[in-house]
Amino acid sequence: MSKVLSVSIVLLLLASVASADWDPGDGHKMHWPQLPDINGWDVAATATGPVGGEAIVRNVADDWKCSESGPVLDIHFWGSWKNGIKGTVKSFMIEIWADDPVGPGGYFPDNEFSTPLYRFTDEHCEPDDPRNGEPGIYWYYGAYLGGGEVTERLYDIGDQGWFDPHDGTYNPLDHQEIYQYNIDMRDLANVFHQEEGTIYWLMITAFLDETQSPDGAEWGWKTTRDHWNDDAVYFDALTTVPDGYDHEGWAMPAYIELRDPLDQAISLDMAFVITPEPATLGLLLVGGLALLRRRR
Fold first, then answer.
1. Are 32 and 3 found together in one domain?
2. Structure-model confidence comparison of residues 154 and 150, the more confident one
3. Taking a C-beta distance cutoff of 8 angstroms, is the pair 54, 236 a contact?
């Protein structure tokens, strides 16, 4: 009976590793998992438009510290829908940026808060110019819902608010459903490799399938109570690099530091977790089974 029970437990654990979902207690490779605040805010992170002839691409980003070097193969995050009007996500734009810390050690030491370090693109210089792609690390992935790369599940229910930093509007009691989204990047040829002890920023924007989404559908990234380091940021517009810096006059994001719209003293951070590759978890479980055998 003891052997059967032990084998059954390990098989169940291996089955959970194969699952795309992530649950509290599962592994991670960041400072700690930032779980969703069941009664928190959802920050608008949907590309909408055209509005007055111009689309609005709402970008939300939060930072994490790598706790284990290696490829980023799984990202999990939580979100909801404005007014509970559920649309269909066509794709998530997933971006990873370098960190620009506040103060003298940062690229822009006059910053009042830390931000993702913007990657200047080849719009501004020739492809062989060494400045192209500098100064920020940048990695981009378009994850398509329903194509086997992204899964979605109803995660929880709670009274939640909606906050759109674009115009400052908010509704403290807006919707109830919370969804978990799981990005599987194991089949990518070019994955992002993180280094232990380094701070990065995760940026997420949702693009909806307008043919499958009702009017008024907007997706938002959920906030967390598991605060770490700097506040999350938002941007949907560009400004120019100040005089006196490299790339002066070039376009860069006009970041907004995210604070609770009801109390500006409260920081907002986003709900997400970076997880170990499944092979690593499987090896840990096999090791656990071997330990059980030795003890018998």
1. no
2. 154
3. no
